[in-house]
Amino acid sequence: MYVCITNICTRLQASYTHKTAHIQSSSLFTMHPFLVYGASIVVPFATLWLLSLLGFSLLKWYPPKEKPLPPGSMGWPYIGETFRLYTENPNSFFSNRQKRYGDIFKTYILGCPCVMISSPEAAKVVLVSQAHLFKPAYPQSKEKIIGPKAIFFHQGNYHFRLKKLIQASFLPSAIKGSISEIEQIVLNLLPSWEDCTINTLHEMKKFAFDVAMVAVFGDAREIEVEGIKKLYKCLGKGYNSMPLDIPGTPFYKAMKARKMLNETLTKLIERRRESGTHGGGLLGVFLESSSASNKAHDDHTFSDCQIADNIIGVIFAAHDTTASLLTWIIKYLHDDDDLLDAVTREQEGILGRRILQGTCSLTWDDTRNMPLTSRVIQETLRLASILSFTFREAVQDVEFEGYFIPKGWKVLPLFRSIHHRANFFPQPEKFNPSRFEMPPRPNSYMPFGNGVHSCPGSELAKLEILVVLHHLTTSFRWEIVGEEDGIQYGPFPVPKHGLPIRVIPRNKKMITNPI
Ligand code: HEM
Ligand SMILES: *[C@@H]1O[C@H](CO)[C@@H](O)[C@H](O)[C@H]1NC(C)=O
């Protein structure tokens, strides 16, 4: 039953069918602006204390059913456990709670009550077998920053149409042709690393961003890439922050950047439409499907606004993820000399064949011949689990594994916890690519998600990583600068400070050895 009480009615409020709980939840949300105000930059202690008193009485949700809510802590009022989640080491954040409460526990992040689930079976129920009960819905702040019409937040026909189009653009057959462009991006970037101290995350973001630009816009250089890159930096900084729309906050800056991205894209779409050429990349595919000649199938067309949100979303999904994963790979290879040697030998084999055959650039078949390097990627996807979880939302009251999940609560399958289970992955905290010599048990490994929302960009991500690793391992060695352990969010978890490294050229003789 949906009863909207106040003008700031959120989906969350729709959740309360029980009368007592309903009144309480609405008063919680009429307080919203007040809380927002109180939580700005420096929070006066007294305000916080007052709010916590008020909040604690309001945050008591009474499950209307006999089944209890899952165990767990909701943290501070409004803020919940958001700050803890995004400042603590994610491995301990999740494993501490799992140890204490079990595979299903509740928490409160980014303004949403959440149920986190860490068993593979339960994750499959949410993402696949009962997916209709758990719609894709991220916290409002994330949906606003990415764009409300973007693929991640939809289901049904609109999602299906978008997915078909995006997936087709990133199939192996579709990305095969871009390998030489990707290689060119690597070859332009690598020389600037030689004998320098670089910030691995920043450099990998440059790389993955340029690849994303090619994937989305084709090779036409019709946009101002540097400007867009800066805007994405703001987006990334706001991505994990509380939705405080107050000047100066990361969220405010991200929303401003988003507006400018939208303007840039809207103009570009207009220009491409006017010129009569759809242009290359995913944007070209979108424009083609929405062109006049296709208008007959109303079903296929997308509005400019929908296209802009999705282009912004795909670029976001493509570059920070890939860059974070690459940063972890650089660290894991650095930490294991024998493994780095073995990967280098594999890549030198490819290099040798290339030179023998007189082909000067990497081919698609080359990249299908890198089993060890591919296992390094698989194991990094597991151990680093840069997407610790994803967001779904209960579309109705659900009873789940003996617990009650109220309608409107977020339900978060914890990829990280599943990937760190010792019964599936013995010595889970050890980096050991050889464990992937055997395929992982079904439902125990889902770095690219599962079900209808699983990642359409997984092949592109793996391809671009293989291309970098080919050149990096055969040309360079690297030392970590300042041995500081730890993890930070940028916006996905990465080694502290983005892993500063010193890059040294390898002995050139060694590279030509295999020929
Ligand atoms: C290492 C890199 C990457 C990782 C770990 C990753 C992971 C994921 C995961 C786990 C999901 C599912 C989210 C969910 O179920 O809610 C997803 C969705 C998605 N990813 Fe990726 N991804 C990566 C790279 C990419 C790239 C390169 C692209 C661009 C081509 C991309 C585009 C997308 C899109 C558009 C979705 C939404 C699909 C949908 O909602 O149907 N990703 N990704
Ligand atoms: C993007 O810009 C267009 C045109 O100015 C506008 O109609 C649309 O609402 C904007 N989208 C978002 C999400 O702000």
Which labels suit this protein?
515 residues, alpha+beta, five-stranded mixed beta sheet, Cytochrome p450, metal-binding, heme binding, binds 2-acetamido-2-deoxy-beta-D-glucopyranose, binds protoporphyrin IX containing FE, Cyt_P450_CS, transmembrane helix, 21 helices, (+)-abscisic acid 8'-hydroxylase activity
Q: Beta fraction of the residues? A: 5-15%
Which distinct ligands sit in these coordinates?
protoporphyrin IX containing FE, 2-acetamido-2-deoxy-beta-D-glucopyranose
CATH topology name of the largest domain: Cytochrome p450
* Form type: globular
Distance between the termini: 72 Å
Average residue pLDDT = 86
Low-confidence stretches: 1-46, 48-62, 508-515
CATH superfamily of the largest domain: Cytochrome P450
Major β-sheet annotation: 5 strands, mixed
Strand order of the largest sheet: 1-2-8-5-3
What would you say the CATH architecture of the largest domain is? Orthogonal Bundle
Structural class: alpha+beta
**Computed CA radius of gyration, to the nearest angstrom:** 24 Å
Tally the helices: 21
Q: Percent helix among the residues?
A: 40-55%
Number of domains: 2
What does this entry look like structurally?
The chain is α+β, with helices and mostly antiparallel strands. A hairpin with a 3-residue loop joins strand 10 and strand 11. The N terminus and C terminus are likely disordered. Bound molecules: protoporphyrin IX containing FE and 2-acetamido-2-deoxy-beta-D-glucopyranose (NAG). Protoporphyrin IX containing FE binds next to helix 8, helix 15 and helix 20. It is found in: Membrane.
